[in-house]
Amino acid sequence: MTEVRPTAAASASLWERDEEVAAVARAVDRLCADRSSTGGLLVFSGEAGLGKTALLAETRRIAEARGCTVWSARGGETLRSVPFNVVRQLLQPALVSMLPEEAREYLGDWYDIAGPALGIADPGDRQADPQGVCDGLVAAVRRLSRRDWPLVLLIDDAHWADQETLRWLAALAERLEEMSVLVVVARRPGDLSGASARHLDTVAAAADGPVTTLSALTPDATAGLTRATLGRHADAAFCREVWAVTAGNPYETVELLARVQDSELDPVEARAGELRELNRSARGGGLVARLEELGIDATRFAWAAAILGTGISVGLVAKLATLRTEDAHRCAELLRTARILTAPDPATGRGAEGDLEFVHPLIATAVYNSIPDALRTAMHGIAARIVADEGHGAAAAARHLLEVHPDDDEELVGQLREAAREHLAVGAPDAARRCLERALEEPPRPESHPHVLYELAEATFLTAPARTISHLRTALSMPGLDGDQRVDAVFRLSQALLHNDQLEEAVRTVEAEAARLGPGPARMRLQAVHFMWEGIHAGEATSPGRSQRLADLASTCTGRDNSERALLILRGFDALMHGENAEEVAELCDRALVNGRLAPGLGWTDTEWGIELLLMLANAYAFTDRLDRAETLYNEALRAYESAGWSGGHLALAHAYVGLGHRRRGRLTEAESSLRESLRLAERVGRGLPLYWSATCNLVDTLLARGRVEEAWDVAERYGFAPPYPSTIVLPDPRSVRGRLLLAVGRTKDGINELEAAEKAAAARGHHNPVLVPWATDLARALSTEDPARAARLAVDVRRQAERFGTDTAIGEALRCAAALETGQRAVRLLARAVTYLEASPCQYEHAAARIEYGTAARSAADLRRGLDLALSCGADGLAARARAELATGAGLR
């Protein structure tokens, strides 16, 4: 092993790091090749002191030498509770250097979403969607990378990064192919669990090759470093003892050699025995003892610096340590000389001019842990007050408040509640949860206790519905939640139960609360919510007389407020599901609008009612052949959620129903694109939820319409599109779609069984709309050979229900079904009528299918060509192939 010392520009901690440095150089070269180069990701892992920070410093040197822009950030052990701490360090300096208009121009629509998380814009007045904020931060890097190409991002001590940053980093890692930026991450192995560990695992999986694990120095390298530091006369025995004492840890080796120089110890075998004592003075208890030797003022200064953790200025430390300014400056100089504190490297952009930081995280940890427990707690309390007095806000003070012992302090409860509101406004619900859980430990006074629980439920609503349910039930069992806030809490509880797949409990909860109230808007709202949850329940049966009670209640509504409008929508959707006249369904829905638009308070991002009600409205229009109105609502939802930065379940559902609109219209290619995007978003929220079923069911239906049967089967297998089915209604009916899929792949018996199960479920619920629950048409076709009598009865029943419903699509599809059971001129006449109805329908795929079937039965080349053109415009490859085959034979065509 060579003992040649690294280049002068390199840190002593870069000994034996040639392979790692070469990997960095190659990655930088790839980045700098041209602006179209894809991003890269390197991950270095190593225990404390193995040179991760030195390797990142060398990365900076190499990148800047190649003309790269380099931004860096570092996690901190005491700062993990500060949301967006690391990503702010990384991106904020570049953005605050811009004029506000310039920053808004660069970030575009993402400015109002990601700006508050980055601390460059004021938050909005509602809870930010965490996924939307995460996507906005990814978009910020993408846009800034175009301006500052070639861009290198360095993240040190990622194991101590806050959870919000790690979520962003994982998302960024998966999308680096879309941007020209190199990301280099350094972390310690292990010591993480839960979401943080999963995020770092995602980062590791996306890296350009395996994670590089740094090793300790070999004895030969330690000898080389020792002689390079102390002189060539250091003898072999002394060098071996240096390695034995430090176990080859580069940081400890450098610190030990500095102690040797300070003590003027002769590097010979006879003095090697003194190395262990010197090494102890550089770490743990030895470091604390050395700190105490500097005096009580210097010790207090170091303790205050460790409490602050970041933004360590002499003035701020002086306030916390209760030191005079001149004494504080003297202590700062003592600690710099003792290599405990140092000025941040200006190149990193960390800290303002005059700020300080600890020389190494090991020192920061040792100093923090050396503070007596009671004093540490008290100092955090003082730090919280100082941070608040400096005007940094409750959220900035919250990390200190979290460390204060509970003491029945209502003022502290108020500060934590305010911090939680600030965290929610920037998209950090986990940070808000920590604040509110700590507030409960204080504990709050009886009059504020249920309000804290309610706010805690708001913080956990998007991520932990089971926990939300518990908090809201407890809050509702206490006195204090009254009026509209209590109604809101009951609605939120029912929503959480719905999201937790406890729909029957959601129905009972709302029903019981409504029974407690006298007549008025609050009771009517809960009655509407009760009918809404019952309306989307996919259980075996509904409560007796539900539809009649809903019809009676809705008959008294004129649409004068949102409770009445909600009841009109619910009555319209219920009538749709039961196959009542489509004109009456549409008329009910029209009455729920104000001048043809959603009423104030009933918008897609309004939380008083939720997304389910508006989807009922839009779907009622979609399946009554009012596709223009339905698509307007679906696209409004998509725009509203995108502009608000709601990138979770709401956006997934919006894409799913935009896809449903395309499918109904016959734009199958566009439908597939929207539904695949919906599934991508739904994957991030979690499998098994109703939104997941909506995307999967519609994608399978669309792929079958396109004639891509094998692909439809693969999607069903991959995403679990099989029993058991969700407790909420999915449109179209998943049993019907799965039955059609089984028939298409040749599993006829299984397909018939599935369609018969759909028949039973629909009958139990009274769902007789053949467009929404189309089991009967497929079952009739499947039984046409083995049980033609039953098939004929089914076709007659479908036609009767379609004529009752009255849309062109329903009647045309029923006629197609009847024609499939006939031959000769009878089939031709039925198909001719089907074509007439479906030509007037907005559903072009069904029109194309009817045209091709008629052209085939009537031997009409003109109709086959017309059907072929329609199929091609729809993206219905299977239909197009069938038409081409008939045209190619040419036999008997007119």
UniProtKB/TrEMBL annotation:
Q: Which Gene3D superfamilies match?
A: P-loop containing nucleotide triphosphate hydrolases, Tetratricopeptide repeat domain
Identify the residues that the record assigns to the Orc1-like AAA ATPase domain, covering every copy: 16-184
UniProt keyword list: ATP-binding, Nucleotide-binding
Instruction: Name the source organism.
Output: Streptomyces dubilierae
Q: Output the superkingdom of the source species.
A: Bacteria
Output this protein's name: AAA family ATPase
Tell me one Pfam family matched here.
TPR_8
